[in-house]
Amino acid sequence: MTHAVRHDAMRAGNLAVVLGALDRRGPLTRAALAEATGLSKTTVSKLVADLIDAGMAVESGTVGDGERGRPGVAVRLSGHRVAALGLEINVDYLAACVVDLSRTVRLLRAQAVDNRAASPEDVIVRLRALATSVLAEAAGLGLSVAGGIVALPGPVDRSTGNVHRAPNLGWRDVAVAGALGLPLPVLVENEANLAALGELWFGSGAALGDFLHVSGEIGIGAGLVVDGALFRGAHGYAGELGHVVVAPDGPECRCGGSGCLERYAGQDALLPPGEEMSALVARLRAGDRDALAACGRAGTALGVALSSAVNLLDPDTIVLGGIFAPLFPWVSGPAEETLHQRLGQMRARVPAVVVSQVGADAAALGAAGQVLQRIIADPGAYLLAPHH
Amino acid sequence: MTHAVRHDAMRAGNLAVVLGALDRRGPLTRAALAEATGLSKTTVSKLVADLIDAGMAVESGTVGDGERGRPGVAVRLSGHRVAALGLEINVDYLAACVVDLSRTVRLLRAQAVDNRAASPEDVIVRLRALATSVLAEAAGLGLSVAGGIVALPGPVDRSTGNVHRAPNLGWRDVAVAGALGLPLPVLVENEANLAALGELWFGSGAALGDFLHVSGEIGIGAGLVVDGALFRGAHGYAGELGHVVVAPDGPECRCGGSGCLERYAGQDALLPPGEEMSALVARLRAGDRDALAACGRAGTALGVALSSAVNLLDPDTIVLGGIFAPLFPWVSGPAEETLHQRLGQMRARVPAVVVSQVGADAAALGAAGQVLQRIIADPGAYLLAPHH
């Protein structure tokens, strides 16, 4: 019994080592895999057979096998069967995507909808419908969706699957994952954290070094990526940039504080009631003075909050995403000016401010990507799961 | 040749495994060490003999050897030979300490001196004299001091041993480690980072969870400890709490910004020119209105900056050290009130604010402790060092 358990644990560990090597280093022959992992060729061949059976790997063409240079049959991650579901509830939209194991985005759906006007129950029913239709499409493509993560605009208690408080939605302790009732394991995570991971896996990624990704929405959140992994803080609540103080005596914020960054640079501070982002961008392009002044103020406030963030977190790069991506030409200048003024003398280098390469879908993509990371880190658990 | 190198590397790795087990788990028999490390008893016995020869371990009494319960000879870390030097240059004092491998503080010397009035060269000459006298005393105690670290009040470039800029000292790119010219390897590190490590190893430690340690001096720095290790940021500049924005239009700061926390809660903002900290504490105890008002303002400003820090970093606990330790009864109340007001609605729990258990020597102790960590992580390098 003990022997069998040990054997299973060892096999699961070795599956993860082989799948991880294929993920990081692309197509490899079995011989190159053996060399890269330190496992015997016999063991590698058995594990690769298991991964091919499970639809997680596939033989494709030939490559040189490293040391000897003889061409061999290449094995790579397969995207044809295993996939992950990414979902997002934000203040003014819902999103769902399916990404396969090779990190190809197979399906992506978004709905513009004012979730503040609806009850949590109604929002969850709507998201369930969106997710169910996306899962049906995925099944039609022959994909087996192993799990999902929901991105939520507020601090999340990952142990319970609850969002503790989403002040911009007016939600408190809503049990999102359970209420969705989807036929697969579903977790929840803060949307700003997931958007940062979306940028890491589907945007500029490793070129950014350690980066702070800013998600501008109705609320403003941020996610810090250090050495390719998310910095979460002790309770998963790190990166709440929207409630960093710009001016302590400033306007009251829905969080209970005052003068928070959100009140100067959140979507509600920039858009007149009823105006769409595209209309604001059109006004900015036309040189509308009010619009330019509002973006200038937002950029300066962003620079103040980011200078506090850089003093505390010391990233290489700042990535502006969400609404700050379309507004980048107008907010990044004042933000950078403020950063240089406040940080230039103390630091050898002030972090560069760059625009997100992913855009509005970053959090949903990051959610699906995180499910894939879990599968790649423990493919044994996936192979043993009842739905497989 | 390759074989010999591999053998040395393996031995060095195994020495670190055995020494690490003794460090974390206290006195152990050779049999218990073998069980804890997975090494054979023969290998453990050889490694323990090497560590005893090097004065890094010692036999002391008997303990049960774990599974079998038979009493055996216990081996533990020895403090009788190997030690580390901790140094600190701050704005108004110098400090030096020697801590032995068992983390007992053997020597601790501080000098109150206004380093702003002196040139960097003069300050380094003074610190060299202090360090030399402490090293002579350590030699008299039979201690072999393996290395040292200098704590500096500003962002440090660890690759060069330079302090990039210490605005409160008026220093720029001073090559401290090289200029000291001590007969042992010396590195530099930011004092706020080291003070946090001092609290971890010589203060409340693991009971704090993930914590932000605030060093109040002329400047204000902070160090974040996550999972028992320092969070440094991409360039080692994380934790610059003193330049987090309290009010962007506030008084100008020596960093080039304005309204930074230091201008409201640093020592210069609290003490009238020429007054000592003890005189301020006496006035506070006597109920002096001006002193109470100044500490109230400082505590509130600290609460504003810390609320931004908690939003970004999400620690379990905030530790107030440096000048905030003697001022704790007067600054912690307003700071906590501000934290609860700004964070209470968004978080299930607002971090507790506690007083440092180490005090003014935290950075020098943390410096010595960090040298010890390096030795414990790689005792082979120490054993092979020419001075040994």
Automatic annotation (TrEMBL), chains A, B:
<dbReference type="InterPro" id="IPR000600">
    <property type="entry name" value="ROK"/>
</dbReference>
<feature type="domain" description="HTH marR-type">
    <location>
        <begin position="18"/>
        <end position="64"/>
    </location>
</feature>
<dbReference type="Pfam" id="PF00480">
    <property type="entry name" value="ROK"/>
</dbReference>
<dbReference type="InterPro" id="IPR043129">
    <property type="entry name" value="ATPase_NBD"/>
</dbReference>
<dbReference type="InterPro" id="IPR036388">
    <property type="entry name" value="WH-like_DNA-bd_sf"/>
</dbReference>
<dbReference type="InterPro" id="IPR000835">
    <property type="entry name" value="HTH_MarR-typ"/>
</dbReference>
<comment type="similarity">
    <text>Belongs to the ROK (NagC/XylR) family.</text>
</comment>
<dbReference type="Pfam" id="PF12802">
    <property type="entry name" value="MarR_2"/>
</dbReference>
<protein>
    <submittedName>
        <fullName>ROK family protein</fullName>
    </submittedName>
</protein>
<dbReference type="InterPro" id="IPR036390">
    <property type="entry name" value="WH_DNA-bd_sf"/>
</dbReference>
